[in-house]
Amino acid sequence: MKGKIMSLDFMLFAIVIFNLISYNESAAPRFRDNAADFIKAGFKKTTRRGVEKQDFTKIEIEASPLLMVQKESFLDKNHVKVEIKTEDGHWCVITGTPSMRGGVYKWTV
């Protein structure tokens, strides 16, 4: 995908998919009602000499998955993944490892 300009449609279809592993197989993880408040996606921004620029070839996705589920014990923090989809395309798993700081996972696509 490098070298291609990514459209806003691409960004809107980016979602976080969790490999939710529970300690009790009969228990199912549940998202909180405000789970969407803990994820954001946008074009990568850089600041050089006080001037902010957007890189329209890269999208940054930030998520706080532990805040998205009702019981964080259902979430395996080592297996959080992102899948993306363009309008008519197929779902594609992002293979890169996210950076993590303060419980916020960050992917650059």
- Name the quaternary structure: single chain
The largest beta-sheet arranges its strands as 2-3-7-6
Strand content: 35-45%
**Succession of helices and strands:** HEEEHEEEE
Descriptive notes:
With 109 residues, the chain is mainly beta. 8% of the residues lie in helices and 45% in strands. The strands form two sheets. Strands 2-3-7-6 form a four-stranded antiparallel β-sheet, with no helix packed on it. It has a three-stranded antiparallel β-sheet with strand order 1-4-5. β4 and β5 (92-93) form a beta hairpin. It starts with 7 loop residues before the first helix and ends with a strand.
How would you summarize this macromolecular structure in one to three sentences?
By secondary structure, this protein is mainly beta.
Write the layout of secondary structure elements.
Layout: H1 8-12, E1 15-20, E2 39-48, E3 51-63, H2 65-68, E4 75-84, E5 92-93, E6 99-101, E7 104-108
Antiparallel strand pairs: 1-4, 2-3, 3-7, 4-5, 6-7
